[in-house]
Specification:
4 domains; alpha+beta; 5-stranded parallel sheet; 22 helices
């Protein structure tokens, strides 16, 4: 039982001497603890209080023994201190009612035992909680429950809020920020859009998206040819176009899903709920046919009529067999075997990639996969000769052996979005339309003395020499702009590592061309092509994808006639559109015959991502060694800037990469604000439901 009568007598006696006039007996405390009522060892918590009187001075929260005689110096754990109320140093809390914050951040120790939270004002006890229960984290199947940091590794600190917050000075993150501050989101691509949704979900509504183009969605771009609408099916994707859904083990015939891709489906479910009642905004999925037996194959051999043989024909007819030729076959076989051994894509490893991409990433780091490209491994470790190396792995391949994409393309089932992937960002439009500034091309950031960020931008397409900058001020900025574009910005003095990450991260180019034909002629060939993608390099078309939707329908059809990456894309984009389309048309005639000429409409769309002013590249393609060097820099907030986007995460290129970065960045921002409970809510909602730790 608390000795409140003793404390009251003591305070009264001291008060008669003119001392401790602000002290309040604990049967009438000035500070009441609302939450938490229980804690876990080694965790981050929000402490919520309310004030029942004038609390002005130096406020300290501590944890320790439950006693009216407790002093600040005797408590077991100092949580944090700040000035509140009418104290001159409380001006920093102007956003809080009467300059008295009511939420604080508490990092519990690993060896915490039962006790009470205590509040001290200028060293005197003015409030104490009931005794808190210490709840041990539940073990899973007899094992210690792991955090995301345990799974993903030490450069994924955002998963572990305790580790992230411990890097900061205790009092710097002690007071939780209010939610009415202003937040800027630079870029209206998928990471920026999901970030806005997440902020809204935790009660932060004072955000604004600055988007340099006239649309949202970023590199998600479906083209609807000849003035058609999504339901007409006359479209193809100039950006991402499919999602790996599940993988079948060829030995056991067991099928298991790609768990990381579940984030896309979860997002669609959330948006469909937000847009219930509006059928035009519903996001629906249907099958994507990635592989089809009758797609043409890149081979020097031709059918008697001069057209190209199909995948099935090449597999079954020895006359079409075209084995690779090496100058030293034994050396080439040894090099290929060495690469396979190093990558170690066993059935167990493949399943790990599909079921837990974070665990796969940690394993890849431990295996040294990010330390070598295929070429550097063959040359520097295996000591293969230069010619063999170039035969086995083209010498321009500089990226690390992080094989998640290899595993993706082992998928036995793929899906895409009905009506085109642009339906996904379109579902955000009703919820962001009043908080997006379109045609706002950012050219710089400035960190101000009042700890805010000024964002400088000009209207896209404005006269560059004389148009003055517009300036928007934000408390924090979530920056999803491609790093390529930031190379020309004026920015705060970021750390050396972050500055190098911005300056030196490489982007690959891509060129995609969609063409509409009078009929779906490919479905009426002697060997009908029902969906599927193939790769043709002579002539140089790259990937060609036949549509997986509206199979055997009448009327026109649209196919992805060419998808080139990197250097080939740069060369193709140097041509005029007409020159390039003439090349594509003649190439398709060579593949399929005169039926191409007969069905040519002259309706097409070409996207050269490297020449796109809003992106200056298609996707991140880091040199080996860059990823695990630069990634930790993106996971730290500098000058109130949080970096998100597919470049600022551990996988790249895919929509999942952008979405994962948005969750990480939002959690990182919430932790910076001291909103620990909200950070936990976001992690639980967007990560823990589908990733097993």
């Amino acid at each position: 039982m608390r000795r409140s009568s003793f404390l009251w007598s003591l305070v009264s006696s001291l008060g008669s001497l003119g001392l401790l006039s602000k002290a309040v007996p604990l049967n009438s405390p000035s500070v009441k603890f609302i939450s938490p009522s229980k804690v876990s060892p080694g965790s981050a918590q929000n402490v919520v209080v309310e004030y029942t009187g004038d609390v002005d001075g130096h406020l300290t929260l501590s944890y320790g023994a439950c006693s009216d005689e407790t002093t600040a110096s005797e408590t077991a754990h100092h949580i944090g201190s700040t000035h509140v109320g009418q104290h001159p140093l409380a001006k920093r809390h102007l956003d809080h009612r009467e300059k008295r914050p009511t939420r604080f951040v508490w990092l519990t120790s690993d060896d915490i035992s039962s006790g009470c939270l205590s509040a001290f004002l200028d060293g005197e006890l003015v409030g104490q909680s009931e005794k808190l229960d210490v709840v041990k984290r539940l073990a899973r199947r007899g094992e210690k429950k792991k955090s995301f940091a345990d799974v993903a590794g030490d450069d994924s600190l955002w998963f572990d809020g305790v580790a992230y917050l411990k890097q900061k000075q205790p009092d710097a993150v002690f007071v939780t920020a209010t939610k009415n501050k202003t937040f800027g989101i630079l870029g209206g691509g998928m990471s920026g859009l999901l970030s806005s949704l997440i902020l809204d979900s935790v009660g932060i509504h004072n955000w604004k998206i600055l988007e340099s183009s006239e649309r949202i969605g970023g590199r998600v771009r479906t083209v609807y040819l000849n003035g058609t609408s999504p339901e007409d099916g006359q479209y193809h994707e100039l950006g991402p176009m499919r999602f790996p859904y599940e993988l079948t083990d060829s030995e056991t015939n067991e099928t298991f899903p790609f768990m990381d891709q579940r984030m896309i489906f979860q997002l669609a479910d959330v948006l469909n709920g937000m847009n219930s009642g509006n059928k035009s905004l519903q996001v629906e999925f249907w099958d994507w046919i990635q592989s089809s037996p009758n797609t043409p194959v890149d081979t020097p051999f031709r059918r008697p009529d001069g057209t190209w043989p199909t995948k099935a024909e090449v597999a079954n007819d020895p006359a079409y067999y075209n084995p690779p030729v090496y100058h030293n076959e034994t050396a080439a076989e040894e090099a290929i075997e060495a690469l396979d051994d190093f990558k170690g894509l066993t059935p167990e490893r493949i399943r790990m990639y599909a079921s837990n991409i974070f665990k796969a990433y940690k394993q890849a780091k431990e295996d040294g996969s990010f330390d070598y490209s295929e070429v550097s491994y063959l040359r520097d470790v295996i000591k293969a000769d230069l010619n063999t190396t170039d035969e086995v792995s083209p010498s321009h391949i500089y990226w690390p052996m992080w094989e998640y994409e290899t595993v993706y393309f082992l998928a036995s089932k793929w899906v895409t979005i009905k009506g085109g992937l642009s339906r996904l960002p379109a579902a955000f439009e009703p919820h962001v339309k009043d908080r997006v500034q379109y045609k706002a091309k950012v050219n710089g950031l400035h960190y101000n003395k009042n700890n805010t960020l000024s964002v400088f931008w000009k209207p896209t397409g404005s006269e560059p020499f004389s148009t003055p900058n517009n300036v928007e001020n934000f408390y924090y900025v979530l920056n999803s702009v491609p790093l390529n574009l930031m190379k020309f910005w004026k920015m705060p003095r970021y750390s050396s590592l972050l500055k190098r990450a911005i300056d030196r991260t490489l982007y690959a180019n891509a060129c995609k061309v969609a063409v509409q034909f009078k009929t779906r002629f490919w479905e009426h060939l002697d060997k009908p092509i029902i969906g599927g993608c193939t790769r043709l390099t002579s002539p140089q078309l790259g990937q060609v994808c036949y549509p997986s939707w509206h199979i055997n329908s009448t009327g026109p059809g649209t196919m992805l006639a060419s998808y080139l990456s990197d250097y080939e894309a740069t060369a193709a984009c140097a041509m005029s559109e007409e020159e390039h389309l003439a090349y594509i048309k003649n190439a398709l005639i060579e593949v399929h015959g005169d039926v191409v000429e007969e069905n040519w409409t002259g309706h097409w769309a070409r996207q050269c991502w490297e020449q796109e002013e809003h992106h200056a590249g298609a996707f991140t393609m880091q040199i080996f060694g860059q990823q695990h060097l630069y990634l930790p820099a993106f996971y730290q907030t500098e000058f109130n800037t949080v970096f998100i986007g597919e470049a600022a995460t551990f996988t790249h290129t895919w929509i999942f990469s952008a979405l994962e970065s948005a969750v990480r960045g939002s959690v990182q921002l919430l932790l910076d604000l001291g909103l620990v409970d909200e950070a936990k809510q976001v992690t639980q909602t967007w990560m823990a439901r589908w990733i097993d730790v």
